[in-house]
Write a structure and sequence with these properties.
Two copies of one chain form a homodimer. The first copy, chain A, has about 280 residues and is mainly beta. Chain A has a single domain, classed as Beta Barrel (Porin). Helices cover about 10% and strands about 40% of the residues of chain A. Chain A is built from four helices and 16 strands. In chain A, strands 1, 2, 5, 6, 7, 8, 9, 10, 11, 12, 13, 14, 15 and 16 form a 14-stranded antiparallel sheet that branches. In chain A, a hairpin with a 2-residue loop joins strand 1 and strand 2. The longest helix of chain A has 16 residues. Chain A is globular and about 50 Å long. The interface between A and B is large, with 47 and 46 residues.
C-alpha cells in the first residue's frame, strides 16, 4: 500500500522533537546507505516537526556525514533554533545504536524550512538547462550487470536514464568528463516533492567514475537548496566538479523539472575513491 | 600592535569549548555586522578548539544566520561531533546577550576542519579563472562617497578594487549583470589565511546591486569550502547568481589566489533587498 519511497523515509514521533525511523537496506551503495536517502529521512522528520507551524518545505539543508549508516533502526532529533513567520531554522541529528544501546551520531544537519506556496512567481533565473539527449535515447542504469548492482543495490530504487556519452556511468570505460547527467524518476512513480529532492541531488554516481576513479566517494558535507516544488514528470539532473584537489572534490548538482524550472541546487564536498 | 583584523576576530577561551569575542563595529553593513566577518570569528574559535588536535584549517563551514549581530560582547560555543585522524567535525554557535544576560543565538554552524599541510599536490582543477581587468584599472571601493560609506562602514576594512564594468558596485547605475567581481586584500595588508577566507567569501556587495535592487541582502545560509591556503598577494573574487526566484537567490563565490589556484568556493542563499 502506498509508495515504497514513503515507507523508506517514514518517521514516527516518539517524543517532542524525537522521531524513530527504520533505514531501508534497499538504498545501499558500497556497503553504506546513500547520503541523499538519509538526507530525506532527516528532512521528513523536520517536516513532521515544522509543518503544523506553517513551514512544511525545505529551503536549505546542510548535512555533515560523520559515520556510515546501516540498515535498521535510527533516531532523528530536531531542535528548534528559530521559528519565525516566514521561515524556521532547526538543528537535526540522525543517530543509530550500538549493541549496548548507546547512540552513535551518523549525520548532523542544519536546515531552514518555509512554505513553497508563499514564494512569489517573480522568476528571474538566468541559468539555462544543460543539454541532455531525449529520454528514450538515454540508458536505464538499473539494467547494469549483476556485479555492479551487487555494489549499488539502490539502482533498483529509481529509474535513472543516463546520458550515453557518460560511458563510465553505464558500465563502459570512463569518458574523461568531469560531469555526469541523467533523467530521473523514482522506481514506483512516486511524485518528486521537496523532500524527495533531498534524495535526488545525491543519486548520480560520483563524477570521479568518469575520471577513472571508480568506487564510492564518501560525502563530507552536502548542502541542498530546494527552490520550488517540481512539476510532474521526469527530472533532469547533472553533477559536475571543477576543483579536484588532493583527493577531495566539490560536486555541484542541478535538478531541472519538466516545466524547465531549476528546482534544486546542491553542492557537496566529497573524498575521491582511492586510486586503484 | 599586530593586525586590526586579528584583533577583530580574536577569541579568548573562558571554559571548555566556550570562547568570548568582542564583535567589531568596523565590520558593519546596513546596521548589522557582515556575515563573513562573523563566520571568521566562529571559525577562529573552532580553530582554537581544534588546532591542538591536529586540525587547524577549515575544510567546510556551513552557517545559518538566525538573528542580526551587533557590535560588542559575544560567545562562541564549540561542540565536538567527531574528531578523527584526518578531519574533525563540530557544531558551533555564536550568541550575544540580552539586557537581562540571557543569550540570543545569532548564528548556528557546522564545520569540518583538517590540516591543509596534509592535502596532496594532486591538483586536477578544471575551472579557469574569470576575466578581471588588471589591478590598477579597477576601482577602489573605499573611495565611495560618504553616504555610501555611512551605510557600509566595513568598506574601510579592506582594499577591494572592483571591476569598472560593475557600475552598480562603484556607485553608478546598475549594470544589469548577475555577477560582481573584484581584487581583494585586507586594509592593513594582513595575509589571507584559511580563516580570513571565511570573511573574503562574503565581502562583495550582493549581486542584486547590479540587478537594480540596492540594499542589504540578508544571508539565510552560507557554506564555504576552503580548499587551500592562498599564496601571498591580492585575491580575485567573484559572486554570481543564476537562480533568482521570489526574492530569494543563491550566490556562488569563487576566490582565486595570485598563483592561479581556486582556493575557496562558497554558496549562500540570500533574501533580496525589498524592491525600492
Amino acid at each position: 500500500m502506498g509508495y515504497e519511497y514513503d515507507r523508506a523515509i517514514a518517521v514516527e514521533q516518539i517524543d517532542a522533537g524525537t522521531y524513530a525511523a527504520n533505514l531501508d537496506g534497499g538504498w545501499s551503495v558500497g556497503g553504506g546507505l546513500n547520503g541523499g536517502y538519509l538526507l530525506a529521512v532527516i528532512g521528513n522528520a523536520i517536516k513532521s516537526d515544522l509543518e503544523d507551524l506553517g513551514h512544511p518545505d525545505p529551503y536549505a539543508v546542510s548535512a555533515y556525514y560523520v559515520s556510515p549508516s546501516v540498515a535498521g533502526p535510527a533516531r532523528v532529533t530536531v531542535r528548534h533554533i528559530r521559528v519565525g513567520r516566514g521561515t524556521a531554522t532547526v538543528a537535526a541529528t540522525l543517530s543509530q545504536f550500538q549493541d549496548d544501546g548507546s547512540p552513535v551520531e551518523r549525520i548532523t544537519a542544519l536546515a531552514t524550512y518555509g512554505d513553497h506556496a508563499r514564494i512569489s512567481d517573480d522568476v528571474r533565473t538566468t541559468a539555462v538547462p544543460f543539454d541532455l539527449p531525449p529520454y528514450d535515447d538515454c540508458v536505464l542504469t538499473s539494467t547494469a550487470p549483476p556485479e555492479v548492482k551487487a555494489f549499488v543495490p539502490m539502482l533498483d530504487r529509481f529509474a535513472m536514464r543516463a546520458d550515453p556519452a557518460n560511458t563510465g556511468l553505464i558500465g563502459g570505460p570512463p569518458s574523461g568528463s568531469t560531469a555526469v547527467q541523467a533523467w530521473f524518476e523514482l522506481a514506483d512513480g512516486r511524485p518528486i516533492d521537496p523532500i524527495a529532492l533531498l534524495t535526488v541531488v545525491d543519486t548520480l554516481p560520483p563524477v570521479t567514475i568518469e575520471m577513472g576513479l571508480p568506487g564510492w566517494a564518501p560525502t563530507v558535507e552536502l548542502t541542498a537548496h530546494i527552490r520550488a516544488t517540481p512539476a510532474p514528470g521526469p527530472l533532469r539532473i547533472r553533477h559536475e566538479t571543477r576543483n579536484y584537489v588532493g583527493g577531495c572534490f566539490e560536486e555541484d548538482c542541478e535538478v531541472w523539472d519538466s516545466a524547465g524550472r531549476l528546482v534544486a541546487q546542491s553542492r557537496q564536498l566529497a573524498l575521491a575513491p582511492l586510486a586503484q
